[in-house]
Write a structure and sequence with these properties.
This protein is mainly alpha-helical. Helix content is about 80%, strand content about 0%. Helix 2 crosses helix 6, helix 3 packs across helix 6 (about 100-180) and helix 4 (about 50-65) packs across helix 6 (about 100-180).
Amino acid sequence: MTNETTSDLAIRMLVEDDAELGEEERHVLENIAAGRLTSRDAADVSDERSSFGERLSDRVAAVGGSWSFIIFFGIVLVGWMLLNTDILAHIGKQFDPYPYIFLNLLLSTLAAIQAPVIMMSQNRQAAKDRVAARLDYETNLRAELDILRLHDKIDRSVDERLIAIEQRVATIAAAVEKRGGSA
């Protein structure tokens, strides 16, 4: 099996010309011909291709979309309001009095920065999903081709046994005929 080329495998197993094969089919056939495994972890493949910015956006989205961030941020907002309304107002040193215009500016800035970062992370997740789908297809194709190869092997084995049985039956029939003819 290892002597077969990708073209031979493509024609024999997929009934396609080698030039008509897609990237996934070619990859699977090359792995079969070389005796290598086809399956790979989609997360590992995606992480190998990711840039620093993409990994950073994933991390920001993971932190910004967590309950711990929401609770911490809620505590900071309540603390800011208490600090500027009660504590610093009593001594006349409040830096952001009600209606908290500076806090509003900070929240708007945070939202303006966080939204595109989360969108980048979502785009990267969609790309990961596409890689996972491609790898699933390759694994499924490999399994299907392996099943076809086993089916072919079994068929050949059955054919060989049937031929052997037919030859043996012919030999026995000839022997019986020979005995019957001389008696």
